[in-house]
């Protein structure tokens, strides 16, 4: 107990003792011989004690609040990210082993950024259900984002062509039906419903960081194969990005993390077909946001951490608060450890191979 707290407690005790009559004990208050002056004295003392104790209790609350605020620690947690795996039958036991490795780590959550199967393998319910079972082996909350191999590429899957619209709806039933993540310790998620109904678009918050997921399949966001579908979903993506940043500002988030499958940049760091509008919205929101922003994706199977520009007109100019991390992919079987750390009042994203 601090010195100021001891003084306040002592003052409360003194106030109580001062209200006890020297010759009349409270335990005898029921005696018929207790005179009216004693009762008036006792009543007045309790009234005074009530007013005094209210102020002392408030002072006690303030006294305890100071050390609690001083004990608040800077933001510091780690989460895992992976994607574009497993692809082959040989990959499958390695992928289960990778989940076991993640389970041995102290992580806030795990994000799979899509492509849990190869484009040449069947887009079957059997594979979908198997992947769902493997994701549920995670002892951490696990959030899945769909990639092109799970739905847009199903029209060309060898041996079993499936309609992409039917496959994304099946994914929604199996992976995005409820308001919670996957894994053995699910967390609550907000999903996009209403004018735009894309439940795979999720949002949540962890320790002052806002997370947003987007259905953005590579390589071109389905722009060439189905322009109408691409246009409708792109409008929904842009609205969901802006809504995520609005919430981040309203809740005073220190950082925003966005996760999707596609790599929206070419090898020369220019916007890829199908992503110019998305990058324009992301760029505008990032520059207007005071905190740090991370875009997490897969698609091109090349682990990297950098900060490419958002549009061709600003070639070579990256926002100082923006980081891009791409996860490993087939044939590598690895994950990315991402530490979110506050230092000097600023949040930094530190990425490194998980194993």
Question: What does this entry look like structurally?
Answer:
- The structure is a single chain.
- The protein has 355 residues and is α/β, with parallel strands linked by helices.
- It has seven helices and twelve strands.
- It has helices at 3-18, 36-70, 91-103, 125-135, 164-175, 227-250, 276-288; strands spanning 76-82, 110-112, 142-144, 190-192, 198-206, 209-213, 255-259, 292-297, 304-306, 322-326, 336-343, 346-353.
- The strands form two sheets. Strands 4-5-6-7-8-10-9 form a seven-stranded mixed sheet, covered by helices on one side.
- Strand 7 (255-259), helix 7 (276-288) and strand 8 (292-297) form a beta-alpha-beta unit.
- Helix 6 packs parallel to helix 7.
- The radius of gyration is 29 Å and the shape is globular.
In short:
This protein has 355 residues and is an alpha/beta fold.
């Amino acid at each position: 107990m601090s010195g100021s707290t001891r003084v306040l407690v002592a003052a409360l005790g003194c106030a109580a003792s001062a209200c006890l009559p020297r010759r009349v004990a409270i335990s005898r208050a029921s005696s018929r011989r207790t005179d009216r002056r004693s009762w008036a004295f006792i009543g007045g003392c309790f009234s005074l004690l009530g007013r005094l104790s209210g102020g002392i209790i408030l002072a006690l609350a303030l006294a305890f609040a100071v050390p609690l605020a001083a004990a608040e620690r800077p933001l510091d947690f780690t989460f895992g990210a992976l994607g574009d795996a497993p692809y082959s039958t040989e990959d499958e036991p390695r992928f289960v082993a990778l989940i076991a490795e993640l389970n041995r780590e102290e992580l806030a959550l795990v994000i799979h950024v899509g492509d849990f199967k190869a484009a040449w393998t069947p887009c079957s319910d059997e594979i979908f259900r198997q992947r769902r079972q493997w994701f549920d082996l995670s002892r951490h909350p696990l959030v899945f984002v769909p990639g092109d191999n799970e739905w847009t590429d199903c029209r060309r899957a060898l041996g079993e062509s499936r309609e992409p619209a039917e496959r994304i709806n099946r994914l929604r039933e199996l992976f995005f039906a409820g308001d919670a993540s996957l894994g053995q310790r699910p967390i609550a998620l907000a999903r996009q419903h209403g004018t735009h109904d894309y439940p795979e678009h999720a949002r949540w918050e962890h320790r002052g960081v806002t997370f947003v997921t987007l259905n953005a399949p590579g390589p071109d966001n389905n722009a060439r194969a189905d322009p109408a579908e691409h246009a409708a979903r792109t409008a929904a993506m842009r609205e969901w990005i802006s809504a995520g940043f609005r919430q981040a500002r309203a809740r005073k988030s220190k950082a925003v993390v966005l996760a999707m499958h596609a790599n929206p940049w070419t090898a020369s760091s220019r916007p890829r077909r199908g992503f110019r509008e998305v990058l324009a919205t992301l760029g505008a929101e990032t520059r207007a946001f005071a905190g740090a922003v991370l875009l997490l994706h897969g698609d091109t199977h090349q682990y990297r951490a950098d900060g490419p520009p958002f549009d061709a007109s600003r070639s070579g100019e990256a926002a100082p608060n923006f980081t891009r991390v791409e996860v490993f992919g087939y044939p590598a079987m690895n994950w990315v450890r991402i530490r979110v750390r506050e230092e000097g009042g600023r949040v930094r994203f530190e990425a490194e191979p998980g194993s």
